[in-house]
C-alpha cells in the first residue's frame, strides 16, 4: 500500500502543504518553519537533485538513493494563509514569504536530461506568465493560458461555470471570473495529463509550477468575512485536492504535490517570459563576464588532467618510436629480414 505524507499547518500564518508524496520521500511531523526563499531548494531535494547550499531543515528526511519522484507540482495560492485540507496531515509554517520561482529547478532538469523530453510548465494565469519546455509544448498545446483564452474556455460546455456550485460567486463579476479562470486552468491541466499518461514512462522527471492570484482579488473585492470568500476557498480546496489526485494517478503515486499559501508576498515579483534557448548577459552594459556555474571547478579539473595525461602519453609514445630499432623492435622488419636471408 502507498502511504502519503501530507502537511497542513495548525498555526496561523503562511504555510506549505504537501498534498502528495511517494513513500520514499518522507516529510517529518513537526512545526519546523521554512523560509520562502528555500522552497525551490526543497523542491530540488524532493526530486533528488543537489543544491548549492545545504538545506538545514529537519522537515524533509533523507531520501532513497535509487528512487526519485517522476514529477513535482507546486501551486502557489495568494490571498490567504492556509486552506482547510483534511486534518490527517501535519504542518510546517512558512516564514519570510518572498517571491520565488522554480527557474533553478527547471534549469537543472534541462541540464541533466537534455537528451530526454521532460515536461516543464510554469504558469501564472492572472499575470499571463508562461514558460514551457520539452514535451509541455505538445501536451499543453491546447491549454488556454491567456485571460482571453480562458474566458473563452469558460463559455464552452463542461466548464467550471456549469459543473461547479458557484452559489454566491457571479459569472458577471470581474474578480469572480478571474478566480474561476484559474480553477478552470487546474481542471484543464488535470484533463490533459489524464490523456497523456505515457509521461510517467519517460526517464526525465517533470516539473509543474502554478501561481494563482484569483483568491487575492476575491479578498480585495469582498473581504475575508464574505460568503464569496467562503465559497471560493471551498471550490479552490476541492480543485487542488482533485488536481493532486490526478497527478498522483498519472504518475502512479510517484509524484510530489505541494501547495504554498501566502496572504501577500513581501516584495513584488517581476519576471519576463523567457526561453531556455535564449542566453542573455545582464552585465553587457559594463562588459562583465558571465557568472561561473557551481560545477565549473569540477569540469575544469576533468579537462585539465585529461589534457595533461594525453600530452604525457603523446610524449612517451613519440620518444619510444624515435628510439626504436626497426631490426629488433618491429616484427614487420624482423620477418622481412628473415625472408631476405632465406631467398
Automatic annotation (TrEMBL):
<dbReference type="Pfam" id="PF07850">
    <property type="entry name" value="Renin_r"/>
</dbReference>
<comment type="function">
    <text>Multifunctional protein which functions as a renin, prorenin cellular receptor and is involved in the assembly of the lysosomal proton-transporting V-type ATPase (V-ATPase) and the acidification of the endo-lysosomal system. May mediate renin-dependent cellular responses by activating ERK1 and ERK2. By increasing the catalytic efficiency of renin in AGT/angiotensinogen conversion to angiotensin I, may also play a role in the renin-angiotensin system (RAS).</text>
</comment>
<dbReference type="GO" id="GO:0032591">
    <property type="term" value="C:dendritic spine membrane"/>
</dbReference>
<dbReference type="GO" id="GO:0030177">
    <property type="term" value="P:positive regulation of Wnt signaling pathway"/>
</dbReference>
<dbReference type="GO" id="GO:0005789">
    <property type="term" value="C:endoplasmic reticulum membrane"/>
</dbReference>
<dbReference type="InterPro" id="IPR057318">
    <property type="entry name" value="RENR_N"/>
</dbReference>
<dbReference type="GO" id="GO:0038023">
    <property type="term" value="F:signaling receptor activity"/>
</dbReference>
<keyword id="KW-1133">Transmembrane helix</keyword>
<keyword id="KW-0165">Cleavage on pair of basic residues</keyword>
<dbReference type="GO" id="GO:0000421">
    <property type="term" value="C:autophagosome membrane"/>
</dbReference>
<feature type="domain" description="Renin receptor N-terminal">
    <location>
        <begin position="13"/>
        <end position="263"/>
    </location>
</feature>
<dbReference type="GO" id="GO:0009897">
    <property type="term" value="C:external side of plasma membrane"/>
</dbReference>
<dbReference type="GO" id="GO:0030672">
    <property type="term" value="C:synaptic vesicle membrane"/>
</dbReference>
<keyword id="KW-0675">Receptor</keyword>
<dbReference type="GO" id="GO:0005765">
    <property type="term" value="C:lysosomal membrane"/>
</dbReference>
<protein>
    <recommendedName>
        <fullName>Renin receptor</fullName>
    </recommendedName>
</protein>
<dbReference type="InterPro" id="IPR056780">
    <property type="entry name" value="Renin_r_C"/>
</dbReference>
<comment type="subunit">
    <text>Interacts with renin. Accessory component of the multisubunit proton-transporting vacuolar (V)-ATPase protein pump. Interacts (via N-terminus) with ATP6AP1 (via N-terminus). Interacts with ATP6V0D1; ATP6V0D1 is a V-ATPase complex subunit and the interaction promotes V-ATPase complex assembly. Interacts with TMEM9; TMEM9 is a V-ATPase assembly regulator and the interaction induces the interaction with ATP6V0D1. Interacts with VMA21 (via N-terminus); VMA21 is a V-ATPase accessory component.</text>
</comment>
<feature type="transmembrane region" description="Helical">
    <location>
        <begin position="296"/>
        <end position="322"/>
    </location>
</feature>
<dbReference type="InterPro" id="IPR012493">
    <property type="entry name" value="Renin_rcpt"/>
</dbReference>
<feature type="domain" description="Renin receptor-like C-terminal transmembrane spanning segment">
    <location>
        <begin position="278"/>
        <end position="343"/>
    </location>
</feature>
<keyword id="KW-1003">Cell membrane</keyword>
<dbReference type="Pfam" id="PF25294">
    <property type="entry name" value="RENR_N"/>
</dbReference>
<keyword id="KW-0256">Endoplasmic reticulum</keyword>
<keyword id="KW-0812">Transmembrane</keyword>
<keyword id="KW-0472">Membrane</keyword>
<dbReference type="GO" id="GO:0030665">
    <property type="term" value="C:clathrin-coated vesicle membrane"/>
</dbReference>
<keyword id="KW-0732">Signal</keyword>
Amino acid at each position: 500500500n502507498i502511504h502519503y505524507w501530507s502537511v497542513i499547518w495548525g498555526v496561523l500564518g503562511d504555510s506549505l502543504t504537501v498534498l502528495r508524496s511517494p513513500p520514499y520521500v518522507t516529510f517529518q511531523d513537526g512545526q519546523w518553519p521554512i523560509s520562502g526563499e528555500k522552497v525551490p531548494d526543497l523542491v530540488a531535494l524532493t526530486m533528488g537533485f543537489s543544491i548549492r547550499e545545504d538545506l538545514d531543515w529537519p522537515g524533509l528526511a533523507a531520501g532513497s538513493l535509487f528512487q526519485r519522484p517522476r514529477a513535482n507540482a507546486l501551486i502557489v495560492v495568494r490571498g490567504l494563509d492556509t486552506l482547510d485540507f483534511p486534518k490527517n496531515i501535519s504542518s510546517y509554517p512558512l516564514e519570510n514569504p518572498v517571491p520565488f520561482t522554480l527557474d533553478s529547478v527547471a534549469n537543472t532538469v534541462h541540464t541533466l536530461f537534455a537528451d530526454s523530453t521532460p515536461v516543464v510548465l510554469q504558469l501564472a494565469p492572472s499575470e499571463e506568465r508562461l514558460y514551457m519546455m520539452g514535451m509541455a509544448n505538445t501536451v499543453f498545446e491546447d491549454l488556454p493560458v491567456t485571460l482571453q483564452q480562458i474566458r473563452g474556455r469558460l463559455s464552452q460546455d463542461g466548464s467550471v461555470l456549469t459543473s461547479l456550485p458557484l452559489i454566491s460567486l457571479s459569472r458577471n463579476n470581474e474578480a469572480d471570473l478571474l478566480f474561476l479562470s484559474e480553477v478552470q486552468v487546474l481542471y484543464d491541466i488535470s484533463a490533459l495529463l489524464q490523456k497523456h499518461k505515457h509521461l510517467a514512462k519517460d526517464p526525465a522527471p517533470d516539473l509543474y509550477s502554478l501561481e494563482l492570484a484569483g483568491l487575492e482579488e476575491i479578498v480585495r473585492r469582498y473581504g475575508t468575512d464574505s460568503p464569496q470568500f467562503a465559497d471560493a476557498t471551498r471550490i479552490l480546496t476541492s480543485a487542488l485536492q482533485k488536481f493532486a489526485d490526478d497527478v498522483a494517478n498519472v504518475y502512479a503515486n510517484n509524484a510530489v504535490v505541494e501547495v504554498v499559501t501566502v496572504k501577500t508576498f513581501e516584495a513584488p515579483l517581476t519576471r519576463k517570459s523567457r526561453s531556455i534557448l535564449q542566453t542573455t548577459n545582464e552585465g553587457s552594459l559594463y562588459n562583465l563576464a558571465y557568472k561561473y556555474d557551481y560545477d565549473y571547478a569540477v569540469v575544469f579539473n576533468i579537462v585539465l588532467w585529461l589534457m595533461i595525461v594525453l600530452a604525457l602519453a603523446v610524449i612517451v609514445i613519440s620518444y619510444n618510436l624515435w628510439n626504436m630499432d626497426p631490426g629488433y623492435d618491429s616484427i614487420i622488419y624482423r620477418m622481412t629480414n628473415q625472408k631476405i636471408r632465406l631467398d
